[in-house]
Amino acid sequence: MKKILVTGGLGFIGSHTVVELQEEGFEVVIIDDLSNSSTDVLDGIEAITGKKPVFEELDLKEKADVERFFKKHHNLSGVIHFAASKAVGESVEKPLLYYENNINTLVYVLKEILGLDASNFIFSSSCTVYGQAEKMPITENAPVQPAESPYGNTKQIGEEIIKDTCKIAPKFNAIALRYFNPIGAHPSSKIGELPIGVPQNLVPFITQTAAGLRESLSVFGNDYSTPDGTCIRDYIHVVDLAKAHVIALRRLLDKKNTSNFETFNVGTGLGSSVLEVIKSFDKVSGQSLNYKFAPRREGDVVSAYANTDKANNVLGWKARLTLDDAMLSAWNWEKKIRNL
Ligand code: UD1
């Protein structure tokens, strides 16, 4: 059984990926600092897969602890690196915290990985690296634009650090997955997203509003140059996204990669407006969401959706689940955690 380290494995995307890895027969070791997650997630993973993954509470900023961890687990076949801070607004307030959390930790992990016999590495990148791309849908060749926030910058710098590492370490193989907008929850409702405080992202805000925790959703801007005036994004079901990680990992393990640093867009290829997301929620929940139009949010791009040809044809992965599937799973999860 191949042993895979998943950093940030108790988080939203990490936990769904651990489930898919275990279901595909991988042995998983999770490290997480619990800064934005809880050990309850381990029970959810066990309830779905019948197996509790090995877990070590570890703060990747503690370099000595990282070194100790890799000495103990020297037989890793691959690392999927999710551990990072991800709130755009907070990153503007606390840039150094973001550079320390997202960059220092990446460097510490990479230094240790280079000491392993086989080093296969999957990195959580983001479509945020494209900024407002000129052409839709966005291909992997679209230029990386100056970052809008320290958070976005950590994704760009992270990719550069990995690319430079690949140049000097021919046995080091890495794939950066550029996620579009991950939403939804596991269909079992045993794991899902657990935003702390007021959610900044659209879908948790919608489900919390419907659950009665928020008064109404503010739709940020209805005067954009889009068919209904609201912004367009590519919403990808977290289960499809999790599967993309397993497929990317297999590509490296099977030595099918054509260079030792590859990037893939992970999206559905479909753009949905904010109003279309609300419509989908209304349909699957049988509710009518309370929303109002509000001014544009600073830093928002008008439109971002993926060209998925490379992921479909080269990686061999395709999103299977729909926006309705994702909204239903997100709503079922919200109802479960609120006892509705
Ligand atoms: C945001 C980040 C992105 C990050 C991603 C991680 C910004 C500008 N971008 O993407 O860098 O990788 O989260 O999940 O923060 N919306 C509303 N009302 C709300 C919340 C959102 O109308 O209360 C709209 C937004 O204007 C946007 C869409 O919903 O058009 C999606 O927003 P969100 O879920 O925050 O994702 P992004 O902004 O695309």
Architecture overview:
The protein is of the alpha/beta class and 340 residues long. The chain has 2 domains: 3-184 and 236-266, NAD(P)-binding Rossmann-like Domain (Rossmann fold, 3-Layer(aba) Sandwich); 202-232 and 269-306 and 320-337, UDP-galactose 4-epimerase, domain 1 (Alpha-Beta Complex), CATH 3.90.25.10. The chain has 11 helices and 14 strands. The chain has helices at 12-23, 40-49, 63-72, 88-93, 95-113, 150-168, 202-210, 238-253, 274-285, 309-315, 323-337; strands at residues 3-7, 27-32, 54-57, 78-81, 119-126, 172-179, 181-183, 217-220, 232-233, 235-237, 261-266, 272-273, 291-294, 303-304. A 7-stranded parallel beta sheet has the order 3-2-1-4-5-6-11, with helices on both faces. Helix 6 links the parallel strand 5 and strand 6 (172-179). The longest helix is centred in the first third of the chain and has 19 residues, at 95-113. The mean pLDDT is 97. Uridine-diphosphate-N-acetylglucosamine binds next to helix 7 and strand 8.
Topology:
Blueprint: E1 3-7, H1 12-23, E2 27-32, H2 40-49, E3 54-57, H3 63-72, E4 78-81, H4 88-93, H5 95-113, E5 119-126, H6 150-168, E6 172-179, E7 181-183, H7 202-210, E8 217-220, E9 232-233, E10 235-237, H8 238-253, E11 261-266, E12 272-273, H9 274-285, E13 291-294, E14 303-304, H10 309-315, H11 323-337
Parallel strand pairs: 1-2, 1-4, 2-3, 4-5, 5-6, 6-11, 7-10, 8-13, 9-14
Antiparallel strand pairs: 9-12
Helix pairs in contact: 1-2, 1-8, 3-5, 5-6, 7-9, 7-11, 9-11
The chain binds uridine-diphosphate-N-acetylglucosamine.
Uridine-diphosphate-N-acetylglucosamine binds at residues 86, 88, 126, 128, 152, 181, 200-202, 205, 217-220, 231, 233, 274, 297, 299-300.
